[in-house]
Amino acid sequence: xxxxxxxxxxxxxxxxxxxxxxxxxxxxxxxxxxxxxxxxxxxxxxxxxxxxxxxxxxxxxxxxxxxxxxxxxxxxxxxxxxxxxxxxxxxxxxxxxxxxxxxxxxxxxxxxxxxxxxxxxxxxxxxxxxxxxxxxxxxxxxxxxxxxxxxxxxxxxxxxxxxxxxxxxxxxxxxxxxxxxxxxxxxxxxxxxxxxxxxxxxxxxxxxxxxxxxxxxxxxxxxxxxxxxxxxxxxxxxxxxxxxxxxxxxx
Length: 251
Known about the structure:
Order of helices and strands: EHEHEHEHEHEHHHE
CATH superfamily: NAD(P)-binding Rossmann-like Domain
Shape: globular
Number of domains: 1
Largest sheet: 7 strands, parallel
CATH architecture: 3-Layer(aba) Sandwich
Number of helices: 8
Strand content: 15-25%
């Protein structure tokens, strides 16, 4: 059996109805995993793609701007599949404004989804693993702004910097329990969160000029990193962050 094989495993992927989350869910399914798709909107395209791969899936309709539904996500995953092996904390949101004008509502909205819910969903899943006497894999979706400051995205930068720190903290606490916590830091990808950047000719040109690969990333580009961190191939990897950025950080 390949070290990258995920047959018989179940992955929860948040924000998997479009973009990066959809790409990761499909990649894990291609490796054999069944998928719990967590999203606010009906993930019709994602479910169709998973079915075409012959994998089982279930949609859990949840809002991640608060913690009230996190226990239900775990309960529904266990009710449908009886197990959880992988958690991908991908769901995220962004608000743009100058720091002088940034509102408390925009701060809280982003921090709630990107950081608070990621921590407490990880906690819910990890508690089940510990109760069962088993381990699992958690993959947090960080960002280039886990390393850099960015502009006009104060809460997004804070949340993604915090998520990278949280990845290391949880790895320190949980590695000895067989729970792997790592992160992927996508570069500039074609998603709904980057529509404003791609629509701005000047910003789009400047971004592309900085990327050695000379293109925006596609969600499928995250597949290999996701399968690696979800599989037994990464069994001695804890607290790591893997940039998938077309060379952005190397520039």
